[in-house]
């Protein structure tokens, strides 16, 4: 797969019902990013001009591997189909075949042997079959599907090779590796940040362990920031498939929370408030039954309000004396414990046409620093995808998408942590945050999606279009 990416542009016809809690913050006409997942924006996340976390689009560790046309080759026969040789005994029926060994063979796209970068046990641990077990095609199929979802794997097939023993075989996993180092760059724009660009450098198979190390830079007219993240999707030796991620970040930009609305929020010196976030986070996550994945994490950030990117002076109030932070100094320490759960039953994570997606989460702050912020934030989202062809605009999936989401905050609520509605990925026809904001919200949307363009590829040019 590498840099070869499918690309589609969609027309979306929306029908939206939305409501925001009546208690709006006095500091400003609150604005912000669209809240679709378990919290307004994951701490340390960059967002695009529609308020969507960029890493959710660019970082494969935040999603399952997209479907690939050649994965149909992964189907396994109920009875091993091997070439016969007069010097070899036929493979007996699968009911009496034992697996003598499991081997990994790296090949290129033409099937020729090639050196591999991934450690073999990263491949073999995806199978619930071990040497000495009886070969079961359905179990092998499940393991092979998990192998093709690894970030370091482009394609994989399975072959069986008989041994000198009449009732034993060697199970061979043939792996085509994907390019592990990606460079992604794209321009964007938003009302708060102006015109800006994002550059992401990412190694998806660090040390051959399928671990992800990424550096993301953002700079533009009114924004400057970086994030360094590391993800191990499966801690070696853990039978529960537990993974973890770590991140540090520093972001500086005006917040759409303070821009627009009935009146824009200005500082006493007439400048627009900039929100500075410096901190880090860590999370443990693991799969559960029924396509559920759960996570628990902790995040710390020091949030300050300033009048530009490079300044030591904080701004605690706006031009009318309304507080912009909970502390009197214009600087808050925000420590939260985060719980989340996701069930993803979509047929494709990038361009789903059927299935559902459920997200629930809770963030509990721990009072630290001068502000002693203590709140509990709960939120959830349910999305249903229904295939339906209403118009014959172009070939491809046409889908009705229904979404219901909501959230509330109990306790202290800094202005920069409020829920907000409006924007291209929330209530269409309104700019981000223009509908309103507050400590509670409920939103229901219905959309009809159909592709206009698809399968746009740039041959041998490592460019991703977003």
From TrEMBL:
Residues 205-453 form the Bacterial surface antigen (D15) domain. It comes from the Bacteria. Its main location: membrane. It holds the Pfam family Omp85. InterPro entries: Bac_surfAg_D15, D15-like. Keywords: Cell outer membrane, Membrane, Signal, Transmembrane. PANTHER family: SORTING AND ASSEMBLY MACHINERY SAMM50 PROTEIN FAMILY MEMBER, TRANSLOCATION AND ASSEMBLY MODULE SUBUNIT TAMA. This is Outer membrane protein, OMP85 family, putative. Residues 64-93 are annotated as: Disordered. GO terms for cellular component: outer membrane. Transmembrane segments: none annotated.
């Amino acid at each position: 797969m590498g840099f070869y990416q499918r690309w589609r542009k969609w027309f979306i016809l929306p029908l939206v019902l939305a409501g925001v809690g009546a208690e709006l913050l006095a500091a400003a006409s609150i604005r912000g990013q669209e809240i679709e997942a378990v919290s307004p924006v994951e701490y340390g996340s960059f967002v695009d001009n529609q308020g969507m976390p960029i890493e959710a689009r660019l970082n494969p560790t935040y999603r399952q591997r997209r479907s690939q046309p050649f994965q149909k080759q992964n189907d396994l026969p109920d009875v091993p189909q091997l070439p016969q040789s007069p010097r070899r005994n036929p493979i007996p029926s699968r009911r009496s075949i034992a697996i003598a060994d499991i081997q990994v063979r790296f090949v290129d796209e033409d099937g020729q042997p090639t050196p591999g970068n991934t450690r073999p046990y990263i491949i073999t641990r995806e199978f619930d079959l071990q040497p000495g077990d009886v070969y079961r095609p359905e179990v092998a199929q499940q393991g092979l599907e998990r192998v093709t979802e690894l970030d370091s794997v482009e394609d994989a097939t399975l072959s069986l090779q008989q041994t000198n023993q009449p009732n034993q075989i060697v199970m061979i996993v043939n792996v085509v590796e994907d390019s592990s180092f990606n460079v992604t760059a794209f321009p964007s724009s938003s009302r708060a940040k102006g015109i800006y660009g994002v550059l992401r450098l990412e190694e998806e198979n660090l040390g051959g362990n399928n671990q992800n190390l990424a550096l993301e830079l953002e700079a533009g007219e009114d924004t400057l920031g970086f994030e360094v993240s590391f993800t191990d999707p499966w801690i070696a030796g853990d039978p529960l498939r537990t993974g973890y991620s770590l991140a540090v970040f520093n972001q500086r930009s005006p917040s759409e929370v303070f821009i627009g609305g009935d009146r824009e929020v200005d500082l006493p010196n007439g400048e627009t408030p900039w929100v500075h976030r410096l901190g880090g986070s860590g999370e443990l996550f693991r799969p559960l039954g029924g396509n559920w994945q759960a996570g628990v994490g902790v995040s710390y950030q020091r949030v300050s309000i300033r009048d530009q990117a490079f300044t030591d002076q904080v701004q605690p109030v706006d031009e009318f004396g309304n507080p912009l932070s909970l502390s009197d100094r214009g600087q808050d320490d925000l420590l939260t414990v985060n719980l989340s759960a996701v069930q993803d039953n979509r047929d494709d994570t990038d361009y789903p046409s059927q299935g559902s997606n459920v997200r629930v989460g809770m963030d509990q702050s721990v009072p630290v620093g001068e502000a002693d912020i203590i709140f509990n934030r709960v939120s959830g989202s349910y999305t249903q995808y229904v295939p339906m062809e209403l118009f014959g605009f172009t070939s491809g999936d046409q889908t009705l998408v229904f979404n219901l989401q909501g959230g509330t905050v109990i306790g202290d609520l800094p202005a920069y942590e409020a829920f907000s509605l409006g924007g291209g990925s929330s209530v269409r026809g309104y700019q981000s945050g223009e509908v309103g904001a507050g400590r509670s919200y409920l939103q229901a949307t219905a959309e009809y999606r159909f592709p206009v363009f698809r399968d746009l590829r740039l041959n041998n040019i490592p460019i991703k279009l977003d």
